[in-house]
Amino acid sequence: MSVSLDHLRRCTVAADLGASRTRVYLRNTGLIVDEPSVVAVNTRNGALISVGTPAERMAGRTPANIRVIKPINGGTVVDIEMAQRMLRAMVGTKLRRALRRKPLLRVAACIPHEADPLARRAAYETLIGLGARRVELVDSLITSAIGAGLPVEQPEATMIVQCGAATSQVAVLSLGSIVAAEKVAMGGETVDRALVQHLRNHHDLLLPSQAVRPLHLVLATGDGDGRAAAEVHGRDVATGLARTVRIDPESLRLAVRTPLTALLDAIRTVLHACPPDLVADLADRGVMLTGGAAQLPGLDSTIRDSTGMPVEVAEDPALCAVMGLGAMLEGRVRPVGTEGDPDRLSPEPEEPERLWPEPEEPERLRPEPEEPERLRPEPEEPERLRPEPEEPERLRPPGRERLEPESESA
Q: Name one Pfam family in it (predicted).
């Protein structure tokens, strides 16, 4: 792994800054924040109106002076100042209450695989601005695999497909490292846009953003014979009036097939880049789906038909990244070769001491024992400052010599 497990065990907070939702995990406590990554701001005075779920409900319903902003896009912070204000409003009170006796705040955060330096710097500055003294950045593919229960630290291949809101990542892991990985610009939002575009082109219906999610239930029903057609309410493109149409689930499946093709191509690319021995392991283990978009109906069957490998959806795919990072913070991840050595998995005993001043520091500030002797004045110094005894005699005026000549003249 790119980050040492010992460094992660010193962290107190785990954060998953996703494009759709922001999740924060507190060590030995659990998940304390799971809110949409949305902020509502008053454009006239810059005041923060709301964050999270209330701000998400305002989308498309706000007046001209209120703007709904998403400061995180594709797992990358695009607006540092707004992201700090959002996190401060979400977790500020909860962290202050839980970390009263912690002099230092160390945070671990998930970042996309092979994130560029600007994205890493943006995540670092966002968390440092919240008061964190140290920030550890961990690959989200590794944390998602750990959260899904995959044995990533073992010398066996495991394949994970992380389907996020804006992007998807495919990787094969072994011995705690990533063997091959691919990233595609396909996620839950891409599928939603494809559904909206399909209704606009084929039914002249404009669908609001809040009405896209119910279409996923339509995808999960029906067998393509038209008997399970569902009603969808929207606005007519030509007249602008409200209209209701009946949608066949099979037509929606055809609409989302195009964005899913990019994901299938990424899976094939990763399999071609892996050694034959690891591909043989994957034939038995299969593929694990994580991320919020992994619950898209029909996604697992589409990947299974395309690759011929077994596909499994994680128990709680949306929380795999943050829960896996929390497991690393709490020391529940065993490195290779430590199965029978529990002492190596426990936090280092020096950890509490590092949070406080070192015991040697006061000794260095004390003056050396020889210093007072050097400051004492030398014994001869007072004798040199005393006036010489002949000095008063020289200053006396010679009065007798001046008076004798006067007496002789008289």
A: MreB_Mbl
Q: What is the pTM of this model?
A: 0.77
- Residue 166 assigned ligand-binding role: yes
Binned average pLDDT, 10 residues per bin, the chain of 410 residues: 77 91 92 94 94 91 92 90 93 72 79 92 92 91 94 91 94 93 92 90 84 75 56 88 87 87 95 92 93 90 93 94 94 60 39 37 48 52 53 51 45
Cα 215 from Cα 251, distance rounded (Å): 12
CA 338, 343, 345 angle in degrees (round to 5)?
60
402-407: Cβ within 8 A, 24+ apart: none
Question: Is 242 annotated to bind ligand?
Answer: no
**Which domains are present in the chain?**
1-38+70-149+316-351 (3.30.420.40), 195-253 (3.90.640.10)
Cα 99 to Cα 102: distance, rounded to the nearest angstrom: 5
204: tokens are 């002249």
Report phi then psi at 185, rounded to 5: -85, 65
Residue type, 336: V
End-to-end CA distance of the chain: 121
In angstroms, rounded to a whole number, what is the distance separating the alpha carbons of residues 255 and 190? 11
Is residue 25 within 8 A of residue 322, CB to CB? The reply is yes
Nearest to 22 by CA among 326, 318, 295, 327: 318
